[in-house]
């Protein structure tokens, strides 16, 4: 009997789809991911530093209660880990993720699903519900970075890697994370005395309004997940079946085949034909 019957057949990611691209070589894919991770972390710490030194200490502390900020932290950490694993694949022909316990491997896959789904929810809710005006250039930059560039970072992870469609069961993980955040939002109100988002204030929008917003965001998240699933499927069909671009698998030490073994001399890249390892 399979240990986790609701997840894809083991082994996890046998052809290293999370760490390779149909478009970029492992080296260039590593550099792209590392650059995005660096930009995200520089942005986060610059925002914290700027607010703390410009009389906005409270705003800096409160940022950890906002779904926008937490999602951006998630993007930063995901790209850092993804760059690390892609770099280890480029250097040694096998990502360190392949040596991790199975549970951590699937948590990485769920992590991937969150950063290809939640940024869309953040951006839609901000521009449709929360946006008012930008008062300063700093305010403009910080909001555009967290509510527009975040979307770009999500799209890049949908289109550039060779990742498969996420299992439907991962929707449950997204729902659980949204529920946990809702709890955090009300814990923040109970301890700090403010609502992180005005639509969570039943005194302003009524209990029915709060419930409506929460259900709407939940449904929107599921819809976004479905659309992302569909886009990934289209990418797989177009790049691998129509264009025959199954993946650039060259490493520093040799050409890596699906089993991960080195063969032959070093090449800049190799197109590897493989059967799909479906994740559904």
UniProtKB/TrEMBL annotation:
Record flagged with keyword Transmembrane helix: yes
Keywords noted in UniProt: Membrane, Transmembrane, Transmembrane helix
Nucleotide-binding recorded as keyword: no
Cellular compartments per GO CC: membrane
Transmembrane segments annotated in the record for this chain: 30-50, 70-92, 104-129, 167-190, 210-238
PANTHER family, per the entry: MYND-TYPE DOMAIN-CONTAINING PROTEIN (PTHR12242:SF1), OS02G0130600 PROTEIN-RELATED (PTHR12242)
Name the UniProt record assigns to this protein: FAR-17a/AIG1-like protein
Organism: Eremomyces bilateralis CBS 781.70
